[in-house]
Amino acid sequence: MNKKILLTGGAGFIGHHFVDYILKNTNYDIVTIDRLDYSGNLNRLNEVTEHLKGSERLRVKTIFHDLKAELNSQIISSLGDIQYIIHMAAGSHVDRSISNPMEFVLDNVVGTVNILNYARTCDNLERFIYFSTDEIFGPAPEGITYKENDRYNSTNPYSASKAGGEELVVAYENTYNLPCYITHTMNVFGERQHPEKYIPMCIKKTNNKELVTVHSNSNQTKAGSRFYIHAKDVADAVWFLMNYDNSKLVSNDFGGAKCQKFNIVGEKEIDNLELAEMIAGFQDVELLHKMVDFHSARPGHDLRYALDGTKMKNMGWKPLKTTEHRLKDTVNWTLSNSRWLLN
Fold first, then answer.
1. Which residue segment(s) compose the domain that 36 sits in?
2. Are residues 177 and 290 in the same domain?
3. Catalytic residues
4. What is the pLDDT along the chain (343 residues), one digit of tens a residue?
5. How many domains does the chain have?
6. CB-CB contact of 234 with 14 (8 Å)
7. Based on the domain organization, do 16 and 45 belong to the same domain?
8. Are 251 and 201 within one domain?
9. Count of alpha carbons within 13 Å of 235, Cβ hemisphere only?
């Protein structure tokens, strides 16, 4: 009997890439929990599962549920025997979190507690992985990359709600001995991303020869920067962690913290102007851009985020392909599938 993964947010951007990865590289079955709101789109799942034939289609099952509510007995019964829970579902839009903080507390804190409570009922659970964000650390000064256990400094309600979810995961491992991991990643891109995000927005605007606004410092002289990473590499990192020998991990925390955390980081830092220039270059068009003081105009957004990927690298994981390779593939795919650029 195949092992089974419960993935929350499977119809989301990163979630559907993880489904695609599991289908192509393993014989595992997947159950997704989705409520299909602003972020979820079943068309993503349809595109990565349409090649399945006959009984193979039974490898993927989607259950409609809003995690603000507890999983009832009927839903639990339909999930079956779960060995892995990957909790990716979350409210993740900074601007909306600033307008309505409670919505994000309910999604990212209460929702996390509800899936953790379900995890406690799983007799054969091998790993619970909570998918978090670089933003819990706050802005990174030049030359600083945050390690997994550095202090948190949330600059908006979204990141604070994700940090709250993290602490509950830590508490459930400490209190109930759940086998938990926490991951941090940043600025994931790839096929079928929502067109409001920076990379698909740049693809669309450069293709249409429109002006691209670039997030910069207050003097409008230095662009913001990130360690961009493709969703396929994120999926590969999660699979790597699912299969890693936990006995090889040693806690360096003086208090003996048990819950291990991992930064999933792109190969190098790229500023947003350089990124836009690369996207324009792949299309052989000139970039039309304007530097804007994004932080002052939109409080809660930060100029630079940066994570230290040394831990995962020392464990034996790194992105499968270079950022340039992944970005070129994404540009070409998106232009050939322009329906995903429609709002």
1. 4-188+227-264
2. no
3. 134-135, 158
4. 799 999 999 999 999 999 999 999 999 999 999 997 766 788 999 999 999 998 888 999 999 999 999 999 999 999 999 999 999 999 888 888 999 999 999 999 999 999 999 999 999 999 999 999 999 999 999 899 999 999 999 999 999 999 999 999 999 999 999 999 999 998 999 999 999 899 999 999 999 999 999 988 878 888 888 999 999 999 999 999 999 998 888 876 777 789 999 999 999 999 999 999 999 999 999 999 998 876 665 555 578 889 999 999 999 999 999 999 999 999 999 999 999 998 6
5. 2
6. yes
7. yes
8. no
9. 23
